[in-house]
Automatic annotation (TrEMBL):
Chain coiled-coil ranges: none
Pfam family, one: TetR_N
Gene Ontology molecular function, alphabetical: DNA binding
Full protein name: TetR/AcrR family transcriptional regulator
Domain (HTH tetR-type): residue spans on this chain: 13-73
Organism for this UniProt entry: Periweissella fabalis
Keywords: DNA-binding
InterPro entries linked: Homeodomain-like_sf, HTH-type_Tx_Regulator, HTH_TetR
Length: 216
């Protein structure tokens, strides 16, 4: 168990971040189950034993990537919010749909890693660092939504926070069903054109429908 002074989930920990970046790159090339600690060490150009100075397991590494990915996303949302003028619910809805575009364009790998959380990552990830990371993300998200409520007072902050949960869920669902007409990247013999998904476009459409239910 890592102590409070050694947070390997923190992006400021350069060696841990180097290991995480190597693991991130590998999962864009190989299935999760095929990735080994040896592969990660080789890609990160560190000794295999060095990894265990920072992470308990492969699952631990990917939980750190998951947390760091969402942290980076919400930091980006916060920066965009500061640079955007929002005075009413229509402008707020436009901004929130814009954040979905960012998530769909830049964070699909993070969403797919997050989908491993419940049945795979939590089995061997560090619980204390996971809790600390999620708490920090929630505080960041709450701060973002508080700014929105300050600009547009007639909105429930909890509904806004929940909207971001729905946002990720929509994208996760679409990514799960995307490319169902392929197997390991190879087209199946049967044609299934109706199963094709335009990820960004349809994610934004679905999210806007949800926002219509909470915004006037």
């Amino acid at each position: 168990m890592f102590n409070d002074k050694f947070n390997s989930y923190d992006r400021k920990n350069k060696r841990a971040f180097q290991i995480g970046q190597a693991a991130y790159d590998l999962i864009t090339e190989k299935p999760f189950n095929d990735i080994t600690m040896t592969m990660i060490a080789q890609r990160a150009q560190v000794a295999k034993g060095t990894i265990f100075n920072y992470f308990n397991s492969k699952e631990d590494i990917y939980m750190a990537i998951d947390i760091n990915g969402y942290t980076k996303y919400f930091e980006q949302v916060k920066a965009e919010l500061v640079a955007t003028t929002i005075t009413n619910q229509t402008e707020l809805k436009m901004f929130l749909v814009h954040t979905m575009k960012i998530l769909a364009r830049e964070y699909q790998v993070i969403i797919l890693i997050h989908s491993l959380r419940r049945f795979t990552l939590e089995a061997h990830a560090d619980p204390s660092q996971t809790e600390r990371g999620r708490s920090a993300i929630y505080q960041l998200l709450s701060s973002i939504c508080q700014t929105m409520v300050t600009n547009v007072p007639d909105i429930d902050i909890n509904e806004l926070i929940h909207a971001f949960i729905i946002q990720g869920s929509i994208l996760n669902g679409l990514l799960t069903f995307a490319n169902i007409n392929k197997f390991n990247g190879v087209n199946l013999a049967i044609e299934m054109p109706a199963t094709e998904i335009a990820i960004e476009k349809e994610a934004c459409q679905l999210f806007e429908l949800y926002l219509n239910s909470i915004l006037k």
